[in-house]
Amino acid sequence: MNSFKLKTWLKENKKTWQIWIILLLLSLVFAILQHTDKKTGIIDIHNIDTYIPEGFVLVPVELNNGPSLDGLLANKGVVDLYTGDPSHQKAEKAATAVKIIRSPRNPSYFAVLVPENKAPLLIKRFQAFHAVIQNPEQKKKTTIQPVNKKNKRTVVIELDNSPHF
């Protein structure tokens, strides 16, 4: 008899239980979609400064090889930064194992997370860098190398007292 009452109630209240099933399915789909968004690592544009740990700063950097990183680096990663002219094969390491993030507002721009007291060493270089992607699972210490001041060469030209001049 109970099954008979249930069948009659379902027939009489067909719209009600259908609405409940639709609401249940929608909430399930919403929960699944919300869970997958957390895995992608999308950074909230409006609160990027809340992700900066105390004692650190985000230093915007210009990368010569930025376009080539588009296919390799998602929103964040760990890189070594080099300066120099690759055509002359003179590269100097500027930073080791720095965390890099892609700008959420403009993905072609990057910034690196460095200790606040080391930021001037990076800014003094005032040139574009080349980034080399590192394994983020390796526990390397972030280091910023100071600018190497090259000794100025003195060129001595000896002139003889010839009458050619």
Which descriptors would you attach to this protein?
6 strands, alpha+beta, six-stranded antiparallel beta sheet
Overview of the molecule:
The protein has 165 residues and is α+β, with helices and mostly antiparallel strands. It has two domains: 38 residues; 96 residues, no CATH class. The protein is 28% helix and 25% strand. It has four helices and six strands. Strands 1, 2, 3, 4, 5 and 6 form a six-stranded antiparallel sheet that branches. A hairpin with a 7-residue loop joins strand 3 and strand 4. The longest helix is centred in the N-terminal third of the chain and has 26 residues. It is rod-shaped. The model has no long low-confidence stretch (mean pLDDT 78).
Architecture blueprint of SSEs:
Layout lengths: L1 H11 L1 H26 L16 E6 L4 H4 L6 E10 L4 E13 L7 E6 L3 H5 L6 E5 L8 E2 L21
Antiparallel strand pairs: 1-4, 2-3, 2-5, 3-4, 3-6
Order of helices and strands: HHEHEEEHEE
Largest sheet: 6 strands, antiparallel
- Tell me the number of strands: 6
Beta content: 25-35%
Annotation field: number of helices: 4
Mean pLDDT: 78
Count of the domains = 2
Q: Round the Cα radius of gyration to an integer and report it.
A: 30 Å
- Measure the end-to-end span: 126 Å
**Tell me, what's the shape?**
rod-shaped
Point out poorly predicted stretches.
Answer: none
Q: Which secondary-structure class do the elements indicate?
A: alpha+beta
Q: Helical proportion?
A: 25-40%
